[in-house]
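Minutes, project huddle
Topic: does the predicted pose make sense with iron/sulfur cluster bound?
PN asked that the exact inputs be recorded in the minutes so nobody has to dig through chat later. Recorded below.
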Amino acid sequence: MTINTSCTVTYSPAYTIVPTYECFNRCSYCNFRTEPGQSPWITLSAAETVLKQLQDQNICEILILSGEVHPRSPKRQAWFQRIYDLCELALSLGLLPHTNAGPLSFEEMQKLKNVNVSMGLMLEQSTPALLNTVHRHAPSKVPEVRLQQLQWAGELQIPFTTGLLLGIGETPDDCWETLEAISRLHQNYHHIQEVILQPHSPGNQQSFDAPPFDPHQLPEVIAKARQILPPDITIQIPPNLVKDDQWLLACIEVGARDLGGIGPKDEVNPDYPHIQEQALREILQPAGWELLPRLPVYPQFDDWLSRELQKAVRQWRKILTPTSLLQEQKSTNLPIS
Ligand code: SF4
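Predicted holo structure (tokens), as shared on screen:
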């Protein structure tokens, strides 16, 4: 790993833009979606107003997080174009887009590669058993569709973030198999930069009636994931879903090294506000962990980006690289983000 030296934990200063909350899937644990046609799409001018306010705030990542329009819907092309245009807009303002908009066609991914420094899609769980329960009405959650997406990302050399949703009815063996599937794909393409381990955390909107994933089990899952995943994949946990400071530290002790995008709102888990940077620092520092900002693309993937994207990334590396890390790099030739 590059930036993640032994006492360093990273996060991405991020802001989430939601093109639309409408989604044709109905995952029973969802706290994000609205019915198709009931969520007006964000306009480019509204997005521009928001994004312009972010300039000079050291927010580098723009997470474009969208509900899904059915691949055969007459609205699909316009939906895709809106996402593409939002990425272009963010780039034109010097911000770095990372899109997560559900499964895309190979051609859609190929196009979005031109305007994203990285992309993402949660694999969640690879067991088809969940298609009879939480994913009964969610065609996008067919495991093969999502595994295919991860493979295409590899073929297209798109730096990619994926992850597991924990506590939605899977068994421990299902988890290990999901991690092994990610691991196998990474060994073929070397394109997975992070794996998120996201504990199910009930929200106000969902119909899935199940307790939250026990955060006390998370360190054990992380330790096992660390054994299964190749060492160049960073394990990410969302600190707002762990809550207890001691358990957050326990997760880090066993191998989690990234806290994901930190911004004003967690759109996927709106009932769990993000813990902001200073509060995180106050938890981590006394235990000897340094919290550092990172970009949405890890440095080992810069060569995969177009020249234009590389230029935008270089600007941010200068801004977000702390002096202490620069000095460390000089003495160890350590690549930094
Ligand atoms: S979890 Fe994602 S795919 Fe499932 S209903 Fe919600 S927005 Fe749609």
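Observations noted during the meeting:
- Residues 23, 25-27, 30, 32-33, 67-68, 102, 138, 140 surround iron/sulfur cluster (CB under 6 Å).
- The beta strands are 8-17, 61-65, 96-100, 118-120, 160-166, 192-199, 234-236, 256-262, 290-293.
No decisions taken; revisit at the next huddle.
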